[in-house]
Design a protein that fits this description.
Radius of gyration: 20 Å
CATH topology of the largest domain: Aminopeptidase
CATH superfamily of the largest domain: Zn peptidases
Length: 311
């Protein structure tokens, strides 16, 4: 293993840099990136498991354990200096000069050198193993992403459509995945629930899934486990936020099929301790669900998936 850094900028006496761990040499070049959001630590435990026995037989695998080091030190999603979300900042190069802008510039210059990128993230609610399939770019990019997701074998795939419609108005500008596709670099996003660092079995599953992706690219020997043949359901995700504060108690369960108007939990006021039901706004499958928690207006307490096909 070789270690190097991506130099960002010096601020006063502090030098900002991003660490890179390099394994192997030659082609293909695969990148595993973690820590774009500083408060997402589960991927670090997955990387630790992966690197404990990583033997590259061909090509090169680079690992960035902390893409946004300052945010990670403060365990914040955004930079404590400029308040910018790095994963909304991969769109324009050199146009802005905040620390997070210069970090994005330096990372983009490095990302352009890879053949495939695995982007590790953490979901803040309960969820199954999820891969995000970004429906964009030309057909070869889409096929490569689908192939990698099949190798990883998540429970479900989130179908992220880059085309804006009245039904899917979400803006993906500045996200890393679409930026990579625009530069002809296939990629997938692996999302792990927040409790993965306490679950050895699920961390092992993430590790083996990544190993199968690397083996499919020919950079290490294929693990002994055979990839299951069943199709992976693909869902378009719809978030349900809350407009009041209080104590949320979930009543639905992951994987439940629900209808619009079904009770998915309850919200108890912390001033009157009156309880009201929280209802689903559309039908589908429960993809993500908040734990028992204190919530405030704007918090996401539920994600419902509507199946768009299989991978």
């Amino acid at each position: 293993m070789n270690k190097e850094t991506i130099d960002i900028i010096r601020v006063g006496a502090i030098e900002f840099e991003v660490p890179v761990l390099e394994f192997g040499s030659g082609e293909p070049r695969i990148l595993i990136v973690s820590g774009i959001h500083g408060d997402e630590i589960e991927s670090l435990f997955a990387v630790d498991r992966l690197l404990s026995n990583l033997e590259i037989t061909n090509g090169r695998v680079d690992v960035i354990p902390s893409a946004h080091p300052l945010a990670q030190v403060f365990t914040q999603r955004t930079s404590p200096l400029d308040g910018i979300d790095l994963n909304r900042n991969f769109d324009r190069r050199g146009a802005r000069r905040a620390l997070s802008d210069q970090t994005a510039d330096a990372l983009m210059a490095r990302f352009e050198t890879y053949d495939f990128v695995i982007d590790l993230h953490t979901l803040h609610n309960r969820a199954p193993a999820v891969c995000i399939y970004i429906d964009g770019g030309h057909q070869t990019l889409r096929d490569r992403a689908k192939r990698a997701i099949r190798q990883f074998q998540p429970d479900i795939a989130w179908h992220a459509n880059l085309e804006r419609t009245p039904e899917t108005p979400r803006n993906f500008d500045g996200y890393l995945g679409p930026w990579l596709l625009a530069h002809d670099i296939p990629n997938i996003v692996i999302e792990m629930p927040r409790d993965y660092h306490r679950d050895d079995e699920r961390l092992h599953r993430v590790r083996r899934g990544i190993e199968r992706i690397l083996a499919d690219w020919g950079v290490l020997e294929r693990p002994g486990e055979r990839t299951p043949d069943e199709n992976i359901p693909m869902f378009r995700r719809h978030k349900r936020s809350i407009d009041r504060s209080g104590l949320f108690e979930p009543e639905a369960a992951l994987g439940d099929r629900i209808e619009s108007g079904d009770v998915v939990g309850s919200l108890t006021s912390t001033t009157t301790f009156e309880t009201q039901p929280v209802r689903a706004e559309r039908e589908g499958r429960v993809m993500m669900l908040s734990d028992r928690d204190f919530v405030v207006p704007g918090d996401i307490i539920l994600s419902v998936g509507q199946q768009t096909g299989v991978l």
